[in-house]
Known about the structure:
The chain is an all-alpha fold. It has helices at 12-15, 22-41, 47-54, 58-61, 63-75, 79-86, 88-108, 112-126, 129-140, 146-174, 179-182, 184-198, 213-232, 242-264, 278-307, 313-320, 325-337, 343-361, 370-385, 388-396, 404-442, 450-459, 464-502.
Amino acid sequence: MSSSAPAAAAPAAPTAFRPPRLALTTFGLALASFMQVLDITIANVSLPTIAGNLGASANQATWVITSFAVSNAIALPLTGFLTRRFGERRLFVWATFAFVVASLLCGLAASMGLLVAARALQGFVAGPMYPVTQALLISIYPPHKRGQAIALLAMVTVVAPICGPILGGWITDNYSWEWIFFINVPLGLFACAVVASQLRGRPETLQRPKMDYVGLITLVIGVGALQTLLDLGNDEDWFASTKIVVLAIVAALGLAVFLIWELTEQDPIVDLRLFRHRNFAFGTAAMVLGYSAFFAVGLLVPLWLQRNLGYTPIWAGFATAPIGILPVLLTPLVGKYAARFDLRILASFAFMVMAFTSFVRSGFNLEVDFAHVATVQLWQGLGVALFFMPVLTILLSDLEPHEIAAGSGLATFVRTLGGSFAASLTTWAWNTRSTVHHAQLTEHIAAHDPAIRQTVAALGGGDLQRGAAVLEQTIAQQATQVGFNEIFHLLGILFLLVIAIVWMARPPFSAKAGGAAAGGH
């Protein structure tokens, strides 16, 4: 990921490389990314079934998610190093093929330990797939169509996580959980074959960078401990747990050494000096904060529908799915016409829409119906459609051609960590605020007041004990609802704050051709 590309590495010919069939190549690249992003969420609703079939506890089953997230977070920032060493085309093909093999191993796993190990492998090889897809798409499209390529990938980023739980639940209910992994085999092999054949002959200048072992080891330790901490924090009661305290110390020490080393190493495995680019720095900050808030919305709404309104996982998926409709419909238009506007205006409008929908949710109550929930999700989709493509273009706009893959990997890594922080913090905040409001709602109820006892008995049809249970359930639901509303009010404010960060970026905002197409790794 060093910025020192050879001066002779950018001849005119490589920049003109186009695959024989651009549409087919685009489909193959997008399919692989869709498959990879889908697998982040597809197993979530199937965990109880998987645990039951493999004779594991619910806590052990969560490692199916955690192992993928940890290894994926470690692999993402290594993308730049790997592209310099192997080239973007070869890295994509081999990473996708390895993803297929790992998916097959997941489906064949006969024990929870084997499944967790296979998921860890799957997460690691998935790391470079999205950033390299982004770099390859930019490189094979002419300059005036690169916005469409980025918009297409942005749509995949939005739609795949929405489809994951719905598809995972449907496959598990109608077939068996193994098929949520087996389905990747034909899709991945097809994507491998298409990209390998269509990009054969694409010029790529390879390097043999020395292995930065200190950077790699501290990255694995620091990021691994941090991601594990974030995934287990809520279940372990955070810093009341010795395990979480130890993980926090290991993560802090590992990341401190990693940052210091990488900033002073001549040829670092993760080039943190990419943040010297103004648009990359502020674009990445906007992406991380905006995506974190968006991720929190995507996590809390289905949980709230199931916990407070009694929805099943599948119906919660249907209620939240409309968020993907407008991104699918508008993506071609955004990609085609966005370059005619100041991308900061489009991004600002997107964040205003997402802030508005968050403020609407902050007024929800326990009587809200399916149509209302789905309508708000639909309108949030307008913000999503105008969020990813402009912000992605902004953060890539001032990188050098040979830095595209590394920058995309680094930005995706930070974005992924932001999502992990958002997931942990929002669920913790919701539980904490619900507890506070539960205490506030119950402190004025005098257990020995005759009028209150009469009311409670009436709730239970004359049975005081049953009435008390009904009252407790009602108070708990109201407390969690108030906590939900508070968090969405804060998320609305956060979306508005991101607008100020977007305007710190400076035009022009046009993504340059990716690394190998410009000849330099």
